[in-house]
Amino acid sequence: MLMVLGYNLGPLLAQSLLGLINGAFYALLSLGLAVIFGLLNIINFAHGALYMLGAVVSWVLLNHVGLGYWPSLVVAPLIVGAFGIVLEKLFISKLYKLDHLYGLLLTFGIALIVEGLARNEFGSSGMAYAVPESLRGATKLGFMIMPTYRVWVVVASFVVCISTWLVLEKTSIGATLRAATENAALVQSFGVNVPRLITLTYGAGVALAAFAGVMAAPVYSVNPNMGSNVIIIVFAVVVIGGMGSILGSILTGFGLGLLEGFTKFLYPQGSGVVVFVLMIIVLLTRPAGLFGKAT
Fold this sequence. Notes:
Elements: E1 3-4, E2 7-8, H1 10-40, H2 47-65, H3 69-90, H4 100-122, E3 138-140, E4 145-147, H5 148-170, H6 172-182, H7 184-188, H8 194-216, H9 226-241, H10 246-266, H11 274-285
Helix pairs in contact: 1-5, 1-8, 1-9, 1-10, 2-3, 2-4, 2-8, 2-9, 3-8, 5-6, 9-10, 9-11
């Protein structure tokens, strides 16, 4: 039992760690959103549905193909990313020069279609996805028992998020992509296939959502509504961090997960709205977000 000045801080630390697990998913999902908006200028409202699709594909691979969790971490994001590439080529690429509202409405419609098809095929009840054998078990921390799989979720999310940020900010590929979004004609004159680069970027953002879905499958039940339940919070995370800010989305995602857990301990009734209260405060005081740049 952890005591400080006569107070038992065990429950507070336990709730904070549980909140960090939610924050890991917020960070991964908001990262994909930030990549797509920051580099392609599209508000991808279908992100939650594609996150759900990653979980559903991993469940199908396990139960109908016999492909386990570890291969699914690679295969499911590739499948869903390829689906995202098809969406980009057929529909989203037509909207880059139009107002953001058109992209939002299109991706919202895509989300409804994807969720409706999944609901029709699998129903609305959750489908269990077993924790892989290598990640079963738990660690006693003194104030709580932490499942090994949840530790893996936090570590894997952090590594993927930081690796993505490093690729986009510190490599020539990231520099080329940022330049292409600023002046596509100039970059294309150097022999870079800009449309292909943009398409692959959208596919990569979708694959990040699917990766989060695969990792979420053993934590939450796999069901067609899992994306719609989280996407509003993820949009709030992106707004607070700064629309298009990659590092801002990562830090805000993990930070808001901790804040949520902290609030659950102090005032459980407010844990569901604390993110939106913070979003309102940030919009009133710093409309570009905590890490965004004012335009």
